[in-house]
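lol ok so funny story. i was supposed to be doing the assay writeup but got distracted and ended up predicting the structure for this chain instead. priorities right. anyway since i did it might as well share w the group, maybe its usefull for someone
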Amino acid sequence: MYTKYVKTKFLLALLLCLMLCLVKLSAPAAAESELNFRWILPPEFYRGNDFHNGRAWVQREKDGPWTLFDTEGNIIKEGFMARHIMQDWLFHSNTMFVPLETSSEFEWLTVGFLDDYSGNVLLEPREYEIPPIFKGGLRSKRGENGLVGYIDFQGNWVIPPVYESGHDWGDGLAAVRKDGKWGYINKNGDIVIDFQFERPALFVNGLAAMRQNSLFGLIDRNGNWLTEAIYEHFFYPWANLVGAQKDGKIGFLDANGSIVINFKFPGLDAGPFSGYASFFNGRVILLLHREGRTGERISGYGELISALFYGEKNITHTNYKWAVINEYGEIIPTEDYDYILPYHGDFTSAFRDNKWFMLDRGGKEHPLPPEFVRSEVLVGRSDDGRIFRAVFRNEEKTGYFKVRD
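and the output, tada:
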């Protein structure tokens, strides 16, 4: 009787273990099915840009024509011949294309501009010693009188040359210098902020990080100081929370300059922070020292992304770790990643063990489907937030996939 009881107990325990093993074995499949991945453009292209303003220029074959696609894979424009097409949100809705590479004898470039949304030519290509940048459709130019104004794509003076110097446009404002001081004008040439600053700064989302006596403060579009100039550095002050460094520590301010997250995160080597430090959609990525580790200096984003692009097998820096911070200053638990891209929308991508993973807003890891990682892959991001660019290095192929719940 006792032996039968022991056998029954043993069989029940064995059955329970088998059930637990089956649950564990089925867990990865459940995790993979939580997100819906689908190709917008399959990995058949030689190269392409990240999506910007809902559009991406993609080249099917090396030295072949470029095609402009929307986020559903529809063709907007095709058959455009250019050596390079560069899309960047810093160009503010203008795409620069470079049909000819820099000459080995002369530092001249043939440069033209396209409309980022329609693909229509805004400015036919011509040679420049230094490529111009049209932000907001205007660029600075020095007139025959030696002073600076702004012209449009047709070369017409929109703002006459009356200033000693001029900078690029941001939020519809440009910094211009007069009598040795900097102020701001709008695209009608009206003076919006009087000439009072020692140095210029770019406005984005209504804020500019202005320098005064070697430190920085925030000003608004009316030229009012929202904070005193007491900060060592600001980080990309165009997100919904602005990263700042004070006494070597990183904290975050809101659009009114009020402290939202106290200065508690350590800056690297007490210098300008080299990891991401601005909130996008309620998340920020920080590159922090590991506990008890100091000394190793790293350029952060630049060094790590370069390693990824050029295919280095091991890019882990043991003195550093990436952290995901929410809008309350809390660190969201994640795996130990070699690299994490900024959040743009509900998802981002992260890299470890020579593989890419998707992270949701809770920091939960989602593996990519096998067909997305069949070879060494670099996953980029888009301003859409759910469309990512996959670059398969071994095959020199590029494709775009969408992530959905």
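The two ends are 55 Å apart (CA to CA). The CA atoms of residues 17 and 23 lie 10 Å apart.
back to the writeup now i swear
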